[in-house]
Specification:
disordered N terminus; 2 domains; about 40% strand; about 400 residues
Length: about 400
Amino acid sequence: MAGFASRHLSTLTALLIVSLSAACAESDGAGSATGPLLSAAQHSVLPLGALVSVPNGAGLSEIWPYLTDDLATAQDPVNLVFTGQADPRAIRDALLGLTGDRTPVFPPVFPFTCTWSDAVGGLMAGFGDVAGWEGTAVQLQCGEYGPIRFHLRLVKLGAFTVGNGHFEVVIPGTTDHQVLSWELAEQLVTYDLARTGLLGAAPADGGAINAAPTHRSIPAIIYNGLPVELKSLTGGPLGSVSAPVGIASNGHPTVLQLGGTAPAAPLPTPQRFTLQFNQIIPRPFCAGGPADFLRVEGPVQLELQVENRPGGSLRRVFRADGELTAIPLDLATGLPSGPALQAKVSEWQQADAGDQGGEVKGVQQQQLIGPAGAEPGHLRIELKVAPGKTPQFDRKVICP
């Protein structure tokens, strides 16, 4: 749904919701010389950036040190590498079996008392020299979709798994999250896997592989709306800022060797919830210029189901639908500058985590409909990533 904008610890939560500005928008041996070769299909699309070496449990493998939602943008840095019995399904079982008690390492207040569950989140992919492109078929959250949570995406790259963890906040009035910290989530995941008793070795430093001392940033308008408690967790200044604040990253992933597995986690009940979109945003496509803004209002329904499949694979299916009102706006006066439009938004995802890796496919559609059925614009985004196959990303915009 990102195209329409790119419980406890009650004091912090309330401050967060109230004070964020309404104007925000946002095989052992894998990789060795004798390992299996990439197919021609896997070679057909390569990462735009250089590959780096990470431990795979039996030596080193080459990976692209980022996860991406379009096969090009270095979006989320790989800050976790899992070796040993490190299938994403096994990591999921281990984390879902934990309680929220993290004392004395973390304070006994939310969000540090959160528990893990399957997460609603955008599809991404990662790349390894042997596995090629694989999808983030397993996504987990500690906390709930909003207002704040830890979010973990996992990608199986042959005999090892890489992941990105981040701490994020829902931008009020939207269905989007803003990342606040890479490092805090990396620390939480590391501590939680230590709590499982499954680590076969002490956590290790994976070496410098991606951007430091920051990667991406928090817009000033969002940062200034954060309560001081959340600002302190980012490592940024506690006062107001006039420029974006970089999201701290030391560029070094933590390597976690898993020496055992946890009992299979029971299947969760489906997640169903509604978010109210209420935000002023730049027209997301077919804009008439930089001053083309819309006030978008209305409910978006989201649903996530997770199920076991024959052969031991895990499937997650996500759907989101909304019929919203989009009013063209004159920012100088705050008044409507044209007739109201109908905005139809939808997203569908299917992700399968299996022995060969992660297969993901998803479609996002956003449609603006004017008076008498005129269509001022249509956006469709599609991503398909499957083991051994050529990955596909397509973004189509139709304007009048």
